[in-house]
Amino acid sequence: MMRRTVVLCMLLASATLVFVSACSRKEVRIEREVSPQIVPPAPSVRPAPVVIMRQPPPPPREEVQVAPPSPSYVWVPGYWTSEGNTWVWVAGRWEQPPERMATWVPGQWVQRGEEWIWRAGHWQ
After folding, report:
1. pLDDT by residue (tens digit) across 9-27?
2. Dihedral of the alpha carbons of 62, 68, 74, 75, in degrees to the nearest 10
3. Per-residue pLDDT tens over the stretch 99-123
4. Per-residue pLDDT tens over the stretch 34-90
5. Which of 46, 53, 62, 66 is deepest in the core (most CB within 10 A)?
6. Count of CB atoms within 10 A of residue 39's CB?
7. CA 71 → CA 5, 75, 85, distances in Å?
8. Using CA atoms, how far apart are residues 90 and 83, in angstroms rounded to an integer?
9. Residue 79: is it exposed, middle or buried by C-beta count within 10 angstroms (0-12/13-18/19+)?
10. Do 72 and 97 touch, CB atoms closer than 8 A?
11. Exposed (0-12), middle (13-18) or buried (19+): which is 28, by Cβ within 10 Å?
């Protein structure tokens, strides 16, 4: 009887070690799959808030584009947004595309009846 108990305890201990080692291997594999190189830039990740205005936006500003940080960067033009009832200009910037062949579709203000609704820019 005691021999069976010892054998069962050893089997249970071995099974626990196999299970724990399998779990720890899985955790390492998951950590390796999550890579900062495949995470798209923050502006592409967050959903754009809905902005509705009663007046049309001012004309876009002309912006001076400085040299890009590297040849792979794409210019994302500036746009008008609102803070309360005041129009605020968000300056253009250089961004790294999330994929090599991605293109930037600029945001735009669209008139719907008496309201102006912002459609945010996005990568396509």
Report:
1. 555 555 554 444 444 443 3
2. -10
3. 989 999 999 999 999 999 999 999 9
4. 333 333 344 444 555 678 898 999 999 999 999 999 999 999 999 999 888 889 999
5. 53
6. 11
7. 69, 11, 38
8. 11
9. buried
10. yes
11. exposed
- How far is it, in rounded angstroms, from Cα 65 to Cα 94? 9
Candidates 70, 78, 87; CA nearest to 121 is 78
> Position of tokens 């998951």?
30
Q: Tell me the domain boundaries of the chain.
A: 2-34, 41-123
Query: Residues 91, 75: contact at Cβ < 8 Å?
Result: no
Token pair in block for residue 105: 């579709």
- Tokens representing 78 are 């500036």
